[in-house]
Request: fold
Amino acid sequence: MKYEILPWLILLLPLVAAGCITLFTLRYRTVSALLSIGAVVTGFILSIIFISANGWHPAVGELFTNWLSVGALHIDFGLKLDALSMMMLLVVTGVGGAIHIYSVGYMREDSGFSRFFAELSLFTFSMLGIVLAGNFIEMFIFWELVGVSSYLLIGFWFEKASAGDAAKKAFITNRLGDFGFLLGILMVWGILGSLNFSALHGQLAQNPAALGTMATIAGLLVFCGAVGKSAQFPLHVWLPDAMEGPTPVSALIHAATMVAAGVYMLCRVFFILNADALHVIAYIGGFTSLLAALIAIQQDDIKRIIAYSTLSQLGYMVMAVGLSGPTAAMFHLTTHAFFKALLFLAAGSVILGMHHEQDIWQMGNLRKKMPTTFWTFLVGALALSGIPPFSGFYSKDSIFAQALEQKSHLLLAVGILVAGLTAFYTFRLFFVVFSGKEKSEDASHAHESPPVMTLPLVVLAIFAAIGGFIGITNHYGSQFIAGHETLSVVQQALEPLHSPVPMLIGIAVALTGIFLAFSLYKNATSDPLPAKLGALATWMKNKFYFDELYEATVIRLHDFIAAVMDWIDRWIVDGLCIGLVRGGTDLTGRALRLVQTGNLQTYAFLFVLGVAVVMYFVLVK
Amino acid sequence: MHAGLEQYLIVSFLLFALGLLGVIMRRNLLVIYMSLELMLNAANLALVSFSRFNNNLNGQILVFFIITVAAAEVAVGLALIVALYRKRQSAHVEDLTTMKL
Reply:
């Protein structure tokens, strides 16, 4: 195999950049930005060189060095090299690179410019670590690192209380899922005695029942990790709040890469999941996608709408995994990375043009003022809605085809319904923001963003448009399906015709959604929906009261336990145990202090008295 | 009456006791200091008498040493007392105690 050093370089360059920026160049904004962008763009180029030299399935599937050996436990630090990981390498470094460049424009005014790029690089390193991880422990380490960098970036504007709270919420909610993930890892290790993905795959291929009765539980515990990271119901509450971070962060972490890590992990360990576990996964994914799509309809914050849309699309991917379609899931993950990063960046451009106004009802008629943003956003919106020939259409259709193949009609119906809702809320956002009248003073003074921001938009828009037939499915297919045949561009473009019914219904509901949005919101100055939907709209607007529900149950219970522990700490530990010792020492000290008068002659007298006593014993006794 | 060793030692003991009493009872630093010297000289007297009655010169040599060291000590001690007096305008031990109960 040629260029074995390259995967290591790709992984470590962002870490080096993050270290250099933090240690040396915090004061030099340009140098910091160049280091960070250089690391990720070099990673992208090196990935292309490596893939063109070794193909999508290199001769050596894993590079590793021994990292830890304790008794029977051997953990390697390995880099897994196959179509799945290399495709993700391209996505993370490619989309990540575009977002890095965009950040130069978006964060230009910020005093934490260099810190932002250091944290961005740290995140890129962690994400590449997840992608390349060759075993469970390594993946878990990078999994947590991603959590940390996400925490740092959500709380980037930590002087705002809401940003700090959102960062904590994201981290703690993720920890809940990670707890299950770790249990799952331990269970797999306990039963199969190995943590390496290739070894586990081999073991399970030889003996599918190797996990025995624990197979379902182990699978679901591992899935817990994905529930946290990919924000599936019931741990979905952190993702919308994470929008407190800067918009490039939302695009990179909370749309394109980190939240996709859960789906990626499921595909990576797909061989562990048995039929029962997959069933649960599929329904949780389907439910999440429906729930999030409903909530998205009644949100007013431009970033929150896209965030709920991300939740919904992640639900799609998880559902696709559950329907035994990792190819479809990864396909949608990749196209979603393109068009969702695009939508977020375009939204960021709008927010910047509007002087940090995020309420869509303050915008309007931005089509003329921000033409590039308008056109690229339109491409992203069409891709998200699943309109052919944009990329989202193909990936969504492959999920529908998968559902049909698995004869899971309920999930197919949910998927199609969500497709309609998606088109509706996307174009609700689109029409309110870009057409109609200016709804505020700021909207009339909006201006287009600088080229450093619009260029990444254009690049991402191109991929969002053509991503459906540039061979993405071929590479994922070669990973998951034995004897997968490579399709030409035309064949890929015509692939949805193999299952025309869901395709046609999908297009029809998407168009209906767009038409409804058009008729309702073309010239609307306030939302007409609440009047029509009544109580349902209120529920949607308030996110079906999940935050309040958790507040009343989980957090209340937690507070109660904390109060009990506080009482024990205060009165039993501090009061009884520590208090007694402290009080005793204090009293003894006070008594002994009386002896020390500080008077020279008292000391002299006591000294003589002492000598007299000694002499009495020596001479008289 | 011919004075024997016993008489010398009694005088030495009385001197020592007087000195000790002075050190313990008196309040003026200078007087305490003189009492200390008295105690040293009581020891010197005892040493010299032992030396005389035992026909051994070691004791007298020791006395010379004590006188020398005492002289040096007086120089240092008096300097300290003078410095203290300048700082506090007092040479009474009660005034010099700064520890609090």
Summary: Chain B touches chain A at residues 20, 23-25, 32, 93-94, 96-101 (CB under 8 Å). Chain B has a mean pLDDT of 89. The radius of gyration of chain B is 17 Å. Chain B has four helices and no strands.
